[in-house]
Amino acid sequence: MPQDPSHPGKDDGVQVFNSGEPFGHRAGLVIGKYLMIHEIGRGGMGTVYLAKHQELGRLVAVKFLARHLAYDKLYVELFLREAKAAAKLNHPGIVAVHDAGCLDPETYYFIMDYVEGQDLDLLLKERGKFPVSEALDYVRQAASALGYAHKHKIIHRDVKPENLMLTEAGSLKVCDLGLAKQLGESGALTQSGLFMGTPFYISPERLRDAAAIDSRADIYSLGASFFHLITGRIPYEGAPAVIMAMHLNGPLPEPRELDPSIDPEVSVIIRRMMAKEPAERYQTMESVIEALTESQTRMHSQTTALLKPFSRATAQVKRPAVPPRSNRWTIAAAVVVLLAAIVYGVIRSVPPPRGTDSKTPQSVLPPSAAAAKSGDAVVAERKIFDLDGSWHSPDDIRFVAWASGEPAPQAYCGAFADPRGGVGGSMGMRVIYDITASQSSAGVRLPLNAIDATPFKQLVFKVKARDPGALEMQVRLKDGEVVSEPLTVTAGDGADWKEIRIALKDFKGPPLNSLTEVDLVFADGSSFHGEPARAVFWVDDVELQ
Predict the structure, then answer these.
(1) Burial readout 256-291 (b: 16 or more C-beta within 10 A, e: otherwise)
(2) Is residue 240 left, alpha or beta, with left meaning phi > 0 and alpha meaning psi from -120 to 50?
(3) How far apart are CA 487 and CA 530, in angstroms?
């Protein structure tokens, strides 16, 4: 098949129709006021030409249906439906269609934006793979455009790197809606999507019943494209039949096994996007965007932390150069508090006298300023985990995440200081885990200076879960002693904090006069229900009362 050497055809392992047209034979054709200049690409359903408006000089792209398909009603309808679907959408991340028509029984066309750039498939062939941070940005842009299409009841059905066009300005545009499906459609057109396109990124439900898919099919295909962008290979390899069988039932290769430098949280995002069952994926592109944005923010903050040591310990807030007069007393009070914190820090830094035991139980914090008083007695509250307190030095931020399972690389748990992830938008701890692997478990350990917890009656902390569903965990104190039954935290819209209270009166483990750690533990069905197997949540304000 003749090819434009600047845009070679792609062997997807499926049937590619030969247009039966000499290369560039439409050059010089005039449609309305557009002059066809030269062919810039061809694919399964036809060819694309660069064209120019003869009066305005504006460049456009014109797509022609292959002549031998013009006599097949199904393909004519698919071709025109692509034009109609794109024409309904007005988004900077979607290639816009301006006109469509038929010159004669063999010539169907539509006119669309001309995008100067390359598709991600060609760039993959040139570069091998993309840095994770760059791929994150491209996938987030694609998710935004596809999410817009979904809101307008249009499913792409053929999301792949080849249909993601990167402009010279660095923005991404989704193109080729040839297999797009209007939600609620039925009939031969909806089934046709099964037999066209590439199997490399196809969702399992599209293989099972192409007519019954919804927008979550695009989430799967975008996840498969993301996999390819950061690993340099498609999720499943082999003959087309083998690839489709693996999409239906095969285990997803772990991206980090292909490239250990891949961020574990990014791997978890991909695995959730590519869950076999649609109900186990992100349910909307907005949820995908939220997860990607959080990863971008964390990766950026970690990079910033390398440049600015200890930047995680305080939240940087820009303030006016000259404060308003009415704020002077507030600022004066803040200065006093800051000086007190400095003095307290100096006192803490003085080593204990010789002969004393450095492991003697001692309080990490002074009593809370909110402690209730009864005469001279103080009802104490001990915050044992709070990233925002002025008493924290960088060394105090030392939580540890762990995971285990078979195969081990597929069990993951990460804990990170999140500058805006705490109660009230302050700093908190963000946790993401994936224990879908058989017999896997995970947890987060909060190492503590030895604390005498015997005067306290309960352990109290706040949790906020991002995703719908129930977050299930157990709480253990030092030496792995369980102090709670499985706890269930029901997530709402991700905005509500849940307060968890655990009584210590029945604790049967070692004495609490030297409490050195608190563990939040998540496990699969081998221990307790463990639903969901993947979660993202935040923890803040852990204290003893």
Answers:
(1) beeeeebbbbbbbbbbbbbbbebebbbbbbebbbbb
(2) alpha
(3) 10
Residue whose entry in the numeric block shows the structure tokens 């560039």: 24
Catalytic residues: 158
pTM of the model: 0.62
Per-residue pLDDT tens over the stretch 150-176:
998 888 888 999 999 999 888 999 988
E strands of 90-189, at which residues?
Answer: 97-104, 107-113, 117-119, 154-155, 164-167, 172-174, 181-182
Which class would CATH give 118-307? Answer: mainly alpha
More confident residue, 274 or 181: 274
Model pLDDT, residue 475: 83
Token readout for 215 is 């927008």
Percentage of the residues of the chain whose pLDDT score is greater than 90: 28
The pair of three-digit structure tokens given for residue 40, joined into one six-digit string = 């810039």
Residue 88 CB-density burial (10 A; 0-12 exposed, 13-18 middle, 19+ buried): middle
Report yes or no: 112 and 63 within 8 Å, Cβ to Cβ. Answer: yes
The segment with the largest mean pLDDT, out of 13-17, 369-373, 492-496, is 492-496
- For the ranges 182-191, 237-246, 320-329, 436-445, the one whose mean pLDDT is highest: 237-246
Q: What is the pLDDT of residue 390?
A: 40
Is the bond preceding 161 in cis, omega lying within 30 degrees of 0?
no
- Answer for the pair 383, 371: CB distance below 8 angstroms, yes or no: no
Kindly tell me if the per-residue pLDDT of 311 is higher than 70.
no
According to the CATH classification, is domain 30-113 in 3.30.200.20?
Answer: yes
Could you tell me the end-to-end alpha-carbon distance of the chain, in angstroms, rounded to an integer?
76
Tell me the Ramachandran region of residue 118: left when phi exceeds 0, alpha when psi lies from -120 to 50, beta otherwise.
beta
Return left, alpha or beta for 544; rule: phi > 0 is left, psi -120 to 50 is alpha, else beta.
beta
Among 495, 497, 491, which Cα is nearest to 535's? 491
Per-residue confidence (pLDDT) for residue 403, from 0 to 100: 75
What one-character DSSP code corresponds to residue 532? -
Task: Summarize the confidence of residues 227-246 as an average pLDDT.
Answer: 93
Extents of the domains making up the chain: 30-113, 118-307, 377-544
CATH topology of domain 377-544: Jelly Rolls (2.60.120)
Report the greatest alpha carbon distance in the chain. 100
CA distances from 129 to 22, 388, 442 (A): 34, 39, 31
